[in-house]
Amino acid sequence: xxxxxxxxxxxxxxxxxxxxxxxxxxxxxxxxxxxxxxxxxxxxxxxxxxxxxxxxxxxxxxxxxxxxxxxxxxxxxxxxxxxxxxxxxxxxxxxxxxxxxxxxxxxxxxxxxxxxxxxxxxxxxxxxxxxxxxxxxxxxxxxxxxxxxxxxxxxxxxxxxxxxxxxxxxxxxxxxxxxxxxxxxxxxxxxxxxxxxxxxxxxxxxxxxxxxxxxxxxxxxxxxxxxxxxxxxxxxxxxxxxxxxxxxxxxxxxxxxxxxxxxxxxxxxxxxxxxxxxxxxxxxxxxxxxxxxxxxxxxxxxxxxxxxxxxxxxxxxxxxxxxxxxxxxxxxxxxxxxxxxxxxxxxxxxxxxxxxxxxxxxxxxxxxxxxxxxxxxxxxxxxxxxxxxxxxxxxxxxxxxxxxxxxxxxxxxxxxxxxxxxxxxxxxxxxxxxxxxxxxxxxxxxxxxxxxxxxxxxxxxxxxxxxxxxxxxxxxxxxxxxxxxxxxxxxx
Length: 492
What we know:
Helix content: under 10%
Shape: elongated
CATH topology of the largest domain: Neuraminidase
CATH class of the largest domain: Mainly Beta
Strand order of the largest sheet: 26-31-27-28-29-30
Number of helices: 4
């Protein structure tokens, strides 16, 4: 298992015991204040153009890199996708809506629509620290100037954009959540605001200071920020769907809220809203688009009920639509078929349940016990869940080690192989027997998955207890949590 973006993976087997081992997923590479190539001089004539109506140039980004039109927006071609790898983080478009960039969690920029490759942008390989990308108000396919916000608050120019000054910065603290540029920014004077996770709105580049924003001390629940056409005014969005004005903006009513439930991803303003009646749209984690204020209702072309896959908006002339990453805890996943029941260790029914007498919760070290629970259901023990396995204190040591006794499923003895070959694993699956395999991960630590069957000669169907809704997915592919198989447990 692993924690999204930064910390741990666990459960390593030994000859007579499976040992919970926590290892860092990624190391810090150092986060500078400025990216290479930031100091470019631009022609003063490159000024912002009047915004176009973005209701027909509005898109939703999913975590696998898909860009989906909303309403009557035309489709945009993409250049990168990551099926089953939730790494796309943010989408930003040029003011005319013809192109822009998808930013992945490592800060890399991938062209969308009519847009050139970016060679001077920031990047943090294998480190989920990039939070949002925005395009400059004067940008275009010929002048693709923009900025990337990192989780510590750093603002990094690319595409020839000038550097900015005065932004809030939190070294070694991933708390920056959003960024917007003032629509009157020019290459000679760039200003805007960043949003922290507690709701703080921080000016940079000489933007007016604001103080009337909503704030949640020590509660990382702020999810997005957008500006109106009036300087220094706009709205912040909380994870429950609440929309909060600042800088004298008119109060607006939310059309969808989830009290106490972190369900919202991003907010974007309607560029053609009347000054006296602002409006825009809110995106929830399942891809639904909710109008607020004076904005018209729009229907997205994609929607993922029960699946936290929507990552942010992108639209023409809006300055940015936010970016997000997958929640740690998942809503209950209900997958039951003739093979058995699929379980996820991050399911919020048991994610925080302790493992035996140890201090570790299931979400952190529970991949193997979730696999074991799935195998129990395969053999007809449908009442077994990760929580019921974790409740057997006699199966676990104080440090989280899981004893081999846990694998004694009545009538279905377990066979442990510490050096399995693919042929050995395939022979068990060919006979209709489930196999749990342990892998050594590239970033350190280990992860276990359940193999449910063969897919052709060289692949397996897999139940992965970490990735969302990963029931009977292929073992192969560009997954975060795959690695060299070093152990297998087969059941007769």
